Amino acid sequence: MRMLLSEILKKRGYAVTTYESLKDAELLFGDPPDLLISDIRLTDGNGIDFVERMQEALGGEAPPVLLLSALGSEEDMLRGFDAGADEYLTKPVSMGELLAKCSLLLARKKKAAAAQPGAGTKLPGGNLAFGRYRIERPLGTGSFGAVYVAHDIETDTPVALKVLHALRGSELQHRQRFLRESYTLSLVKSRHVVRLIDFGEQEGRLYAALEFVQGPTLSKTISRFGPMGDDELLALLTATAEALEAIGKQGLVHRDIKPDNVILRDGNPADPVLIDFGLAKSSGDRMLTEVGTLLGTPAFMSPEQISARDLDSRTDQFSLGLTVRFAATGETAFPKLGGVQLLAALSTRPVEFPANLGPVLRRCLTRMTRIQPERRYSSVRALLRDLSSPIDPVACG
């Protein structure tokens, strides 16, 4: 199959390099191609695992990926897309469809490259954005802004540079939220919360420079290595709860606690860092909340988020419980449900935990994920006390 695809693509004018093993293919990390085509089931490993390693090694410079597989279920395809695939073809492969996908992906890459900083993207200061940050590569983009890996020439350190889109920056509500969150985050002092280095505005563009944390997300760690054991889970939960306590002291509710928003510094479960405060709000603040808008990630949302009730630190407590459950099991609380059914389950059905969890973890996670906020811990400090107190659950009420 590899030889056949290679010959067909070469006849179309593409330069093609093939690899007989995943170990050999790691050579492309030093010289990324314009497009990677990989099967999922390979003789010496799994193509999805390789794509994930490539994404971690190359970040924003990773090439688009076309996965081939005989597995064509929705679950298999979603797993491929979650790993970083851009397109997915089931075998037997139609050569016409393959060539069309290759052409499309290469055209998208060319268009994206033209939009990178220094090639059309207008950031104040050009290559030295905001007079201080040398842009290295895009890290991600969303509806509200973009994030770049940049080098801070004043401190000679890498940073994650977050820039509000010009259109969003022209809207008072989004400007107020961005500035308020940046200022509040600057007051948070915790090793387990991403550190704000600098924020401001230039030529109408709002920006914030954040600590660039080296390490995989919790989501990628579990995907690669599988569920964690009790000791790792307890360390993860304790450190992340300390992050929630730190942001709670500044009156913040994160509103989007999930495995993708927890980075394990240097891959250490005991050293998590909470990131992405794009949905954060002050506890009890209604003015800057979009009326009728569901904010958050459905699989990790609290019942009160779903029903658009007032939120406080207990909503982050619930989401953290689901996040640690994911680390313990490798799946979400209701993996077979989606859409309205998922939201209904989170609002009405108790969250179940593995029977082999230790008693302290089971007790704490069960209480954190109770449907009624008033039945959860009254504060993160109370949760931390319970985590460090291996007492009988009856005694702790």
Write the layout of secondary structure elements.
Blueprint: H1 2-11, H2 22-25, E1 36-39, E2 41-42, E3 45-46, H3 47-58, E4 65-69, H4 74-83, E5 87-90, H5 95-114, E6 128-129, E7 133-141, E8 145-152, E9 157-164, H6 166-169, H7 172-187, E10 196-202, E11 205-211, H8 218-225, H9 230-249, E12 252-253, E13 262-264, E14 272-274, E15 281-282, H10 303-306, H11 313-329, H12 339-348, H13 359-368, H14 380-387
Parallel strand pairs: 1-4, 4-5
Antiparallel strand pairs: 2-3, 6-7, 7-8, 8-9, 9-11, 10-11, 12-15, 13-14
Helix pairs in contact: 9-11, 9-14, 11-13
Summarize, please.
This protein has helices at residues 2-11, 22-25, 47-58, 74-83, 95-114, 166-169, 172-187, 218-225, 230-249, 303-306, 313-329, 339-348, 359-368, 380-387, and strands at 36-39, 41-42, 45-46, 65-69, 87-90, 128-129, 133-141, 145-152, 157-164, 196-202, 205-211, 252-253, 262-264, 272-274, 281-282.
Protein structure class:
alpha+beta
Number of strands: 15
- Strand order across the largest sheet: 6-7-8-9-11-10
- CATH topology-level fold name of the largest domain: Transferase(Phosphotransferase), domain 1
- How big is the Rg? 23 Å
Domain unit count = 3
The CATH homologous superfamily of the largest domain is called Transferase(Phosphotransferase) domain 1
Our estimate of the beta-strand percent is 15-25%
Query: How would you sum up the major sheet?
Result: 6 strands, antiparallel
Low-confidence runs (pLDDT<50, min 5 residues)? 115-121, 286-293, 393-397
Query: Into which percent range does the helicity of residues fall?
Result: 25-40%
Can you identify the CATH class of the largest domain?
Mainly Alpha
Element pattern in H and E? HHEEEHEHEHEEEEHHEEHHEEEEHHHHH
Provide a count of the helices.
Answer: 14
- Given the C-alpha coordinates, what overall shape results? globular
